[in-house]
Amino acid sequence: MRKLPWLLLLLPLVLSSCILVVDLPVSNFRFDSNWQRNTDLRYVFCTNKTTYMRYKFRAPDSSVISSIQEFYQGHASGDTLTLNRPITDLTRDGSDLVFVGIVNFGQGQVPQSLPAGVSQQSIVVTPVTPPPSESGRTTVTVTVTTASGRQYSGSYLYYVYSNCP
Asked: How far does CA 10 lie from the centroid of its chain?
């Protein structure tokens, strides 16, 4: 019976050598903008108005992320744009990491960081009731690579409108 207490004291030491560090997954990608179609509540981009794009995803901490890549594909034009997003552009919102940027339209334009003093909570969604004219569609794909090299992606198809109210 005297051996049992010694074994119980050694058990944590033995188990501590079995610790495995796991790179927790990135998940639950969500996309929106400050413009939303009334008919189906789908988030859209507006070319004639300031448009904010926001995406968020669940991640344990930004320190587990080694890179973020955004890929934009225009369906009407066939143009593509790949952008490496600095991890420092992310903010924490509960268990999510969030990026918010202004979408600029035209040749070579990319979403930029928000101006000072504007936060992701200050986005107000404005309904768009067609008939502003649909001018195209853009698929935004975000790929997050973790420190272990695993990649996680999320995509959203934004309808693009001109002549928004």
From this structure: 45
Contact residues for 58 (Cβ-Cβ < 8 A; gap 6+): 26, 27, 28, 95, 96, 97
- C-alpha 100/C-alpha 162 separation (Å) is 21
Residue pair 158/142 in contact (Cβ under 8 Å)? The answer is no
Q: Which residues contact 94 (CB under 8 A, 6 or more apart)?
A: none
Q: Where are the domains of the chain?
A: 26-162
Token readout for 155 is 């995509």
Yes or no: say if 133 and 100 are a contact pair by the CB < 8 Å rule: no
Q: What is the pTM (predicted TM-score) of this model?
A: 0.73
**The domain 26-162: what is its CATH number?**
2.60.40.10
Q: Is 155 exposed, middle or buried (0-12, 13-18, 19+ CB in 10 A)?
A: middle
Residue-wise pLDDT tens digits, 67-98: 999 999 988 778 888 999 999 999 999 989 99
Q: Decide if 137 contacts 159 (C-beta within 8 A).
A: yes
